[in-house]
Amino acid sequence: MSTDTKQVVTEEKPVEEKPVEEKPAAKPAAKPVELPAFEKSISDKVVEKFGDKIQVEFVKENRVGIKVNRENVHDVAEFIRDGLNYDHVESVSGVDYPQDKEIEVVYHIGSYSDSSLAKQILVLATRAQREENPIPGKDATKLPTLRDIFYSVEFHEREVFEMFGVYFTGHPDNRRLLLPEDWADLPPLRKDFAIKGR
Amino acid sequence: MLKDLVTPENANVFIGKLGDILEKAIDKPLGYAINWGRIWSLWPVHIETACCSVEFGAASSPRYDVERFGIIEAFGSLRQCDLIVVQGTITRKMAPRLRLVYDQMPEPKYVIAMGACAITGGLYFDSYNVLPGIDGVLPVDVYVPGCPPRPETLIQGCILLQEKIKRMKARKFV
Amino acid sequence: MTNELPPGLAIQKVDERIMTLNVGPQHPGSGHMRIIVQIDGDYIVACDPDPGYVHRGEEKMAEYRNYITNIPHLERPVIHDSCNVLYPYVLGVEELLGIEVPERAKYVRVICSELNRCIYIMYWLAIYGIFLGHSTMFMWPAGDRELLIDLMEKISGARVTHAHFVPGGVRNDLPPNFEEVCLRQVNYFEKRIKEYAAVFYDNPILISRTENTGVLSREDAIRLGTTGSVLRASGVDYDLRIKEPYDVYEELDVHSPVMKEGDSYARSKIPWLDMLESCNIIKQALQKMPKSGSVRVKLKPNPKGKGLDSVYKRVESGRGSLGCHIVSDGKVEPYRLKLSVGSFRNLIALPYLLKGEKLGNMPSVYWSLNYWPVEADR
Ligand code: SF4
Questions:
Q1: Residue C6 has pLDDT above 60, yes or no
Q2: Which of B45, B63, B93 sits opposite C143 (nearest CB)?
Q3: Which of A140, B124, C104, C169 has its C-alpha lying 20 to 30 A from C114's C-alpha?
Q4: Which residue intervals define the domain NADH:ubiquinone oxidoreductase-like 20kDa subunit in the entry (chain B) (predicted)?
């Protein structure tokens, strides 16, 4: 757990000093494009609630990207559901970053019940620690599950578990889904797993 | 005369020889009849393995209507089938099941490998979960290339199989 | 390696009274997957779908191929809906590269996509029909489907795997005279599918078999994150062609059908209504399409993204919303590509719908989910 916290600190340091507003504005600085207002209001709401615990990655048309570290992902997701009216997760994708020693898990969250949010996708990204020699389920590559908040992540998280070896603590059914039962290699979507002849 | 020839010692040999002679005599016409019957009742197992099954389905649609050739009659039970059309990619999870299905079928049985995936792995030649062709799993009789093969190609493959069966021995002698 | 299984991979214990049945993968009612059902007498008490029999590692292989060679790959999950399954990828790559598509290409894309939607739904309907033991409903859609396949063959040259959409437009222009042929075929097609109501949808046997089986309430449909016809059959009006219009759907008049019941009957009727709507859209698009003009922006060979970037694009496919998440790191290959497909998202509803149903209703409930296993497994 000690390595765990160290990781987070190093990760958060560079973005701590009031970058929350700056980051999205900095990107389109070359050509002065107005940030879409409605999307901005959504990201502002999250920033207002959580302050510097989160980091706004991008604000594009219809997409708001938020980055959280793994301690807060559960709370932020809860706020997204209760405070912002998002109600289902469309996709959960893992992205492996071997050079950062981290695996990013990206939730694409949408809303059916709130018609003003119908276009919007909230991209919630969080990172888990990555081990060189993974033992799926037993090493430190763990994240809290969001299944109790968004029920629809159930199969998606099972998929991320087998494809990346990210164990979701609290998920009741972390079994294999797509891979063969006797799969004993690395989780296949990690970058260090090479396919035949490549 | 026959009585003199047959002694209790050589009875078995003699009867076996007689059987051979008889079989040789009627093998051709009988074999022809058996094979003729087999040609017109090639019933495939209903096992879909990947996307080629779309064109397999299209082949039994009214436009192509393979059943007029007496070949692909839909939905037999596994124990009454004698043809297995491998419709595309065989993954590592599917391969043991495919073999299990094949082993449960009664003799004689024929295999058609449909699609590039079933022949060599096709587009998925470097995937981590796909077998490079099904030759390691099943003995294939006819290969039908294409990705996916058009229904006409499948029909031609079935007709080739019929030709092949005509030339095969109907019975195996012991 | 120890013999001990990691948490979660351990085998679950089952009640002794309850019988476990494996349906599939060799089973007429299951397609390319296995459904493990536990039955008590004739009633299903639990159901555990076991997909993955066609898992071919598309997402991994996409990381080894450049943006253009990925095109034929990414349509393989649903070859009979190949334009729609490629659509979000193409839109995403266009956004990554910052390409603007010519107006005519957008219309051609919409026409192709709607034709493909019909082709997909007709195949699904044929399968649904045969699994309910309704042979006419296999023959009719399987035959009428060929009409539209002919049209797509005229456009792209292939029966099912078109690979017609490319970043920057479509591969080829429409063939000469296409508009008239298309209009004629689509009109005939529309007339044909209206006849299905008499044979299938108003058929009392079908109604008694599918009504009130596998009811999914509106709340559950939202909570489970279902999509497409499953969602719209439960009374949620959500169609990306209207809610988040891509390409030229804004300029067209789209009404997507919604039903309130949420049972198998509603779920099987929505796709049929969808097809009628598709015919409508095709006719509108043919009318509004610019009569000439370029259909493709030529790209430089081996296009690259601009540094670390990610997009998430989605379209409404035959099975519901289909999203494509592309992460690029400025190389010629995507860094990570994820398809979020309707079939996979709808699969989560299966255990809910089957609980408490009779085993005999399983095929009708399962196929009404508009599920295509190859897509779900990727
Ligand atoms: S040959 Fe082509 S169509 Fe057939 S299973 Fe392989 S990828 Fe699919």
A1: no
A2: B63
A3: B124
A4: 51-159
